[in-house]
Amino acid sequence: MRVTVKCILLLHIVRTCQNSVYFGKSQIVRPRVVNGVDDVNKEYPYVVTLETINFDRLCTGTLIAKSWVLSAAHCIPGKVYRIRYGNMTVPYNATKSYSRVLKQIPHPGYIDDGTDILFNDIALFLIEPVLTKTYGRISTVDYKTLTGKEFWSAFVPCATQNKDAVQLTLEQIDVIRRLIDKYPQHFQFATSVTDILQAHSARPRKIASLIGIEGGHSIANSLGVLRSYYQLGVRYMTLTHTCNTPWADSSNEPPVTNGLTEFGEKVVKEMNRLGMLVDLSHVSENTTRAAIKISKAPVVFSHSSVYSLCAHKRNVPDDIIQSLKENGGIIMVNFFPDFVKCAPNATLSDVAEHFHYIKRMIGAEYVGIGGDFDGVNRVPRGLEDVSKYPELFAELLRSGQWSVQELKNLAGLNMMRVMRQVEKVRDEMRTNGVEPEEHPDSPNDNGNCTSNAFYTEYV
Question: Quick one: which of 77, 265, 308, 329 has the fewest CB in 10 Å?
Fold first, then answer.
């Protein structure tokens, strides 16, 4: 099942950057498993690369135990033979060690019908715990130390719209909740700023885990479904993904609504009332402008970059960036080279320019990190994975344009500010007695996929 992490707040990363920039300290990290022995000090990286017997690199995975790697089931047809301890973008002479794959176990419900849509796309790889060879070492940092908060995205593809989007979204939420419950030593379910701070202050520290929905098609044109998602813990929703909904336009398709319909406006208002973040990444420019105009709470762009630096439809134009200052929202800069440089060969410095641009235009308090590592097939040189976040902060420090406090805000405090304001707006609306939005004539674009049976028929 596809569960993705959309935005990560790194609450301790500035301290790490200061060490590397000012004091020249580098942490030499060895493989997480050494001669079959678990990593007692929690110092080793989790990212591994899945390879064939001919050293062809297929996918990445996560080392979740001494002998188990979690990855995508669709990698299995590639006949994974070994696990290399290091990211696939790292040169061979800089990667570390590898283990042999002994068994591959896909999710029981894994379906690959030859299309681009894969369901329950998850598999476990049993590996030989004793490392067979060492190629060298790389310098990195402990991921868990750096990660303070994650949004887990309960994503379902646009092909589910008007079909089984709600069921599949509920299943995504279910698997996220079960994953958090299964590993309480690492994760803590969170729905508020208070929960995040509690997880961060716990000893040992835990990763605060929140849930978001990427695509308004998941609510199936129902405010009741939207409210139900909130009760299950969903705290952000992207108004569209790569497809239009009957009430909002995506940046990926020709416009239909040219903004928001009456129902779309009610969706935004209800999200304000609930205390759910309105995410505008993937959303068309006119729909974005309409949402910012009507929203009483700050909005977010969870993974978007600057249009003036790369004229891509997924990026944010200057007038919308300017409007964020009054709205109080935030742009989480995306690292995908196609959005950063409009070319496949972006670098760390190119990414830094997007942060500089937003800071110069509206201030450092309106920008965050939205790397989108789970959703891209190319990464910038120097920002190959989350272990390279310290390099980003070092680059920003070297520019002389950022203070340490501004980097702390970038690392997570900016997003916390937005969340607090969203919660404040929610509380004020409740205090003022604002009732849930109603829309009995919600858009129905389902054709024969719904019953159209209303209770009034039986009264």
Answer: 77
Closest CA to 168 of 219, 210, 123, 122: 219
Pairs from 44-48 (Cβ < 8 Å, separation ≥ 24): 44/142, 45/85, 45/86, 45/140, 45/142, 45/143, 45/387, 46/143, 47/86, 47/87, 47/143, 47/385, 47/386, 47/387, 48/83, 48/84, 48/85, 48/86
Q: Collect all residues with Cβ–Cβ distance below 8 Å to 156 and sequence separation of at least 6.
A: 165, 168, 169, 172, 215, 217, 218
Distance CA 333, CA 321 (A): 12
**Residue ranges covered by each domain of the chain:** 38-127, 149-432
The whole-number pLDDT of residue 148 equals 66
Say how many C-beta atoms besides its own lie within 10 A of residue 20's C-beta.
Answer: 18
Under CATH, what is the fold of the domain 149-432? TIM Barrel (3.20.20)
Tens digits of per-residue pLDDT, 156-214? 999 999 999 999 999 999 999 998 999 898 889 999 999 999 998 888 888 899 999 99
The correct CATH number of 38-127 out of 2.60.120.1440, 1.10.1660.10, 2.40.10.10, 3.40.120.10 is 2.40.10.10
Question: How many CB atoms neighbour CB 391 within 10 A?
Answer: 16
CA quadruple 40, 27, 374, 102: dihedral positive or negative?
Answer: negative
